[in-house]
Design a protein that fits this description.
Coiled coil: 38-92
Largest sheet: none
Structural class: mainly alpha
Keywords: Coiled coil
Distance between the termini: 152 Å
Helix content: over 70%
Strand content: under 5%
Number of strands: 0
Radius of gyration: 44 Å
């Protein structure tokens, strides 16, 4: 009879030890305790994902509607005007260069057709 009590006590101790380890490792929840850490982390992760989505939406809205958009529009208009002015100056420079080349060509032709000096 003592032998049977010893085996059942040993089984009970092993079961208690296994249960306490599972609780400590958070493989199972305590009967009356709060959520295990893993469950808490999953809930916190979901909450942070939601907050991140909200912040991303606010950031996109701020980029589209924010106070900087007027400044960006103004700079783009200035940039467009400067590009157009630059193109005009390039065309004028090419025209002036062509005219200077034409004059130089006339001077060279006139110098090459002079009668030889005696």
């Amino acid at each position: 009879m003592e032998w049977a009590m010893g085996i059942s006590s040993l089984k009970y101790l092993n079961m208690e030890w296994a249960m306490s380890n599972l609780v400590e490792c958070e493989c199972i929840e305590r009967k009356s305790g709060p959520l295990c850490k893993m469950s808490q982390l999953v809930l916190e992760q979901d909450q942070l994902k939601h907050e991140l989505e909200e912040m991303t939406a606010q950031l996109l809205k701020a980029q589209i509607e924010g106070p900087g958009t007027e400044a960006v529009k103004e700079l783009r208009l200035q940039n467009t005007a400067l590009l157009a002015h630059n193109a005009t100056l390039q065309e004028k420079a090419i025209k002036d260069n062509d005219e200077a080349n034409a004059r130089l060509t006339l001077v060279i032709k006139s110098l090459s057709h002079q009668p030889p000096s005696s």
